[in-house]
Amino acid sequence: MYEITTSRISRDRDRQLLDSSVVKLKEVLKIKTNKKWQPSDMNYTSSHLLLVVQGQGCLTWRECSLQVKEACIYSCMNEEKLEMDCTDGNDMTLTVIAYDVYQQDDREHELFVSDVPPVKHLIDLSHHKINWFTDICDSIHRHWHSGEGLGKYRSQILFQEALYWMAKSNTQAPADTDSALQQTKDYIDQHYNESLTLDRLCRMAGLSLKYYSELFKKQYAVSVTEYIAKVRMEHAKRLMMDPELKMREIAHLVGYPDEFYFSRKFKKMMGISPSAYKMGSD
Q1: In sequence order, which residues have a C-beta less than 8 Å from that of residue 7 and are 6 or more positions away?
Q2: Could you tell me which of 157, 173, 159 has the C-alpha nearest to residue 50?
Q3: Is the Cβ–Cβ distance between 170 and 124 less than 8 Å?
Q4: Is 157 exposed, middle or buried (0-12, 13-18, 19+ CB in 10 A)?
Q5: Torsion angle, alpha carbons of 11, 218, 264, 233, to 10
Q6: Per-residue pLDDT of the chain (282 residues; tens, 9 = 90+)
Q7: How many angstroms separate the CA atoms of 7 and 230, rounded?
Q8: CA–CA separation, 71 and 35 (whole Å)
Q9: Considering the entire predicted model, what is its pTM?
Q10: I need a labelling partner for 279 at 20 to 30 A (CA). Which of 44, 78, 103, 193 fits?
Q11: Closest of 95, 92, 74, 82 to residue 35, by C-alpha
């Protein structure tokens, strides 16, 4: 199980978010499937989604993929294009909880839907109170669909308790941001010739854009974009040793579709134009 956790600072932010938020359930479903399933099937566009996974499959979003098994929670927003692949022939049971998080605008004193989930992306429950959590999710689902008076209200209360427990568990979990940062750094090293956006990389790390950028620079003494450019230029210099390669081809091979942008970037970083550098290496 690949587990992404957050540092103490980030976890404190999550706790503060819950302290100042109102959370409202929108739907609770149990889904049994042995094929690909997407949260977009639920037709919710603004809600956060919480997946409690029982069974085994492959979870993918953006350019990332994770092998997941029982006792795993994934928190996301619907537009993240999340997909669960259960096509290995085994049935997978998902408890899917859709909800909105509301925060107060201090200036307008009105509630607005927050775009920040109160629970970070992946939580591995295998070393925690999995039986307790499974039971409370079953209770949330049962009361939600009971048809009884105050049944959905009871589900709301139980869900608040589950969120509290997850947030509390996260604040006590050991930080593992170093491995998340190293994963993205290794990805840059291997995929420097692809389109590498900050948004894509921070999601791979399971961290917010701002926090990911801050941690990367602190850890490696350069910003993410500076590191990407540095890796690309080092590969470009090696490619310039081949007299058969044209500058346009070299630019494309290191991830720059615009030859002129590549030339400006190279000169800014190396203090010499790429054509002059190539002539000197011939």
Answers
A1: 175, 177, 215
A2: 159
A3: no
A4: exposed
A5: -110
A6: 223 333 333 445 555 566 777 888 888 988 888 777 777 666 665 667 677 767 777 777 655 666 666 666 777 665 556 777 775 667 788 888 888 888 766 665 566 666 656 665 556 555 455 677 788 889 999 999 999 999 999 999 999 888 887 777 654 333 467 778 888 999 899 999 998 888 778 767 766 677 788 889 999 999 999 999 999 999 999 999 998 999 999 999 999 999 999 999 999 999 999 888 887 765
A7: 27
A8: 20
A9: 0.53
A10: 193
A11: 92
Residue with tokens 């420097």: 192
Q: Which residue has the tokens 């608040």?
A: 160
Give φ, ψ of 52 to 5 degrees. -105, 115
What residues have CB less than 8 Å from 191, skipping those under 6 apart? none
Length of the chain (residues):
282
d(CA 254, CA 238): 11
